[in-house]
Specification:
The chain is an alpha+beta fold and 356 residues long. It has two domains: 233 residues, Rossmann fold, CATH 3.40.50; 104 residues, OB fold (Dihydrolipoamide Acetyltransferase, E2P) (Beta Barrel), CATH 2.40.50. It is built from eight helices and 23 strands. A six-stranded mixed sheet has the order 6-7-8-3-9-10, with helices on both faces. A four-stranded antiparallel sheet has the order 2-1-4-5, covered by helices on one side. It has a four-stranded antiparallel sheet with strand order 11-15-22-23. Strand 13 and strand 14 form a beta hairpin. Helix 2 packs across helix 3 and helix 2 packs parallel to helix 4. The two termini are 39 Å apart. The structure holds adenosine-5'-triphosphate. Adenosine-5'-triphosphate binds next to helix 1.
């Protein structure tokens, strides 16, 4: 397994990029730990596949270097990088047995047959296909086939990293959940460096230790699921992660309080921002309390979502979502309190540290 260093990488598909907008991938400069599980998360077109292809060697970046354990691999082809890849659609040999599919990458590398047998049997147990070893792959279900693709990565002892590109797209919802949990367990047990591309936040948050959120060709935050929830670095992260996403209220700051419309909201500290910055308060619906105390709101809709309710309201004309318990009543004259520890402050979409 390897530590992956992305050293000032940028990529443009067109010739002679001159402005920021010409780059599909703006500057990426990070180090990903050996044995880490990373998810690249973001909407379509944000640059996830571009970055994954640079790591796998399908693409040479326009600028910067990529290193595996300190070794520059920027110009090495995929075959020389010892990378295992799992794509959206399973890549397997239908006419071979499940056993031979797993043995193939090892036999290709001239691994002695006794070692092949040991590793294939170990992998079959990991992916729960022991009883299917002698069956032809042709007759298997989509999720079993995808497990073989995964197994072909796990079976090799020499891989630097396993890369996944939306691997659960063709899997049905119930199996998705099972495969995801299984993958996480495999990672915890065997500690492979894994990079997993998805546009599905549930998939990213349940699989990864570190989620890399991408937006318009840029990494806007790398964080644990808790960090992304509590302290989104960019308003996009607040909006993209969470259901519903973070509320954003245009505000003006004055010392340790903020003004939204005609209302004043106390803050836990008074950060300084440049005078011309566009300031917004970001508050997750989980930190919005609705009751008889606080500032006035107009409730526009209440959605029952099982054990909770989502309240849609207007606060000073700005749409606001709150999550309340299913048994909570909304008073006739509803009011709102924002929990101070749940308020993040943004200047021109980027989070401002309290007091900074
Ligand atoms: P998706 O989830 O849809 O695959 P993504 O986040 O993986 O999206 P990329 O495929 O990396 O995004 O695309 C990033 C940007 O680069 C997009 O604007 C896309 O149109 C552009 N792009 C991707 N591949 C090429 C290419 N071969 N030639 C030109 N532009 C490309």
């Amino acid at each position: 397994m390897a530590r992956i260093t992305l050293d000032h990488i940028r990529h443009a598909y067109g010739p002679k990029p001159s402005a920021e907008k010409d780059y599909a991938l703006k500057e990426v400069h990070h180090q990903w730990e050996d044995g880490g599980a990373y998810a690249l998360l973001g909407p379509s077109g944000c640059g996830k596949t571009t970055l994954l292809n640079i790591i796998s060697g399908l693409l040479t970046p326009s600028e910067g270097r990529i290193l595996f354990d300190g070794r520059d691999v920027t110009r090495l082809p995929t075959e020389s990088r010892n990378i295992a890849q799992v794509f959206q659609f399973p890549v397997i040999y239908d006419t071979m047995t499940v056993y031979d599919n797993l043995a193939f990458p090892l036999r290709n590398r001239k691994v002695p047959e006794a070692e092949v047998d040991r590793r294939v049997r170990e992998t079959l147990a990991m992916i729960d296909l022991v009883d299917w070893a002698d069956r032809k792959a042709r007759g298997l279900t989509a999720d079993q086939k995808q497990k073989i693709s995964l197994g072909r990565g796990l079976v090799r002892s020499d891989v630097n990293a396993i890369l996944f590109d939306e691997p659960l797209t063709v899997i049905d919802p119930h199996m998705k959940w099972i495969l995801r949990s299984q993958l996480k367990r495999l990672h915890q047990t065997f500690g492979h460096t894994m990079v997993y591309v998805t546009h599905d936040q549930t998939e990213a948050l349940t699989f990864a230790e570190k989620v890399v959120v991408m937006y318009e060709g840029e990494i806007v935050q790398i964080g644990t699921p808790v960090e992304l929830f509590e302290k989104p670095r960019h308003t996009f992260v607040g909006y993209f992660i969470g259901s519903p996403g973070m509320n954003l209220l245009p505000a003006e700051l004055s010392g340790a309080s903020a003004t939204v419309g005609r209302q004043t909201i106390p803050l836990s500290s008074g950060p300084t921002v440049v005078p011309e910055a566009r300031v917004e308060l970001g508050i997750r619906p989980e930190y919005v309390r609705i009751g008889r105390e606080g500032l006035p709101i107009q409730v526009t809709k209440v959605e029952d979502v099982g054990r909770q309710k989502i309240v849609r309201a207007l606060f000073e004309g700005v749409p606001l979502a709150a999550i309340i318990s299913e048994d909570q009543e909304i008073p006739a004259d509803p009011r709102v309190v924002f929990e101070p520890h749940g308020i993040n402050i943004y200047a021109d979409s980027w989070r401002v540290e309290a007091g900074g």
